[in-house]
Amino acid sequence: MTPGDSAPASIHRYLLPHEHQVITVRRHPAVLMTPIGFVLGGLIVAGVLSNLLAKQGGAVVSWIWWAWLILLAWFVWKVAEWSVDYFVITNQRMLLTTGLLTRKVAMMPLSKVTDMSFQRSITGRMLGYGEFVLESAGQDQAFRVVSFLPYPEQLYLEVCSMIFPSKDDADD
User: Fold this and answer.
1) Which of 79, 134, 146, 171 has the least CB density, counted as fewest CB within 10 Å?
2) Which segments constitute the YdbS-like PH domain (predicted)?
């Protein structure tokens, strides 16, 4: 979790002048498990096929490795996308910024959140990530599910305390 003003500069451009960010988190690295699996699986397949087809000629083997390099480039793209995706909670709203070339910023005011829960799969409990499910008073929602969030219990408690402040906080 990123406290105070240590969020990346790319996030500050989406904040209003009168709001300040409270929490900024990048999605859990577990979001990269599938791309990692594809790249490693592709490497194994490319290695096995290279050994089997080595006698037939170098052209087939080079195509196999070019295909794996394309898969590796896709993996690098996924890592680059992950590095710029953030879930931001300000004093007034929640933002989900995604995309490397086409930047998408989904926003939901904290005052519109009527229900929020988080879910953790077995893998999520082992690796330390969870998923938020948000419900709002309006029918159209910019985002409903935010997956692969690190520290889901801490985030859940922090957001709930902001959405439903205690009566003692209101008196201050």
Assistant:
1) 171
2) 87-143
DSSP letters along the chain, please?
-B-TT-S-HHHHTTS-TT--EEEEEEPPGGGGHHHHHHHHHHHHHHHHHHHHHTTT-HHHHHHHHHHHHHHHHHHHHHHHHHHH-EEEEESSEEEEEE-SSS-EEEEEEGGGEEEEEEE--HHHHHHTEEEEEEEESSSS-S-SEEEEEESHHHHHHHHHHHHS--HHHHH-
pLDDT digit string, tens, across residues 83-94: 999 999 999 999
**Sign of the torsion angle spanned by Cα atoms 70, 76, 80, 85:** positive
